[in-house]
Amino acid sequence: MKILITGFGPFDRFPTNPAQVAAEKIAENDPDVECFILPVVYGEAREVLHRELRERDPDAVVSLGLSANIGCINLEEIAVNIRASHVADNSGRILSDEPIVEGGSLAYRTSLPTSKIKKRLRQEGIPAKHSYSAGVYLCNEVFYTEMEWARSNNKIAGFIHIPLATSMIADRIEMYRFGHMSMDTIIEACEIIVEEVKKSDILQ
Ligand code: PCA
Question: Residue 113: which CATH number?
Answer without folding.
Answer: 3.40.630.20
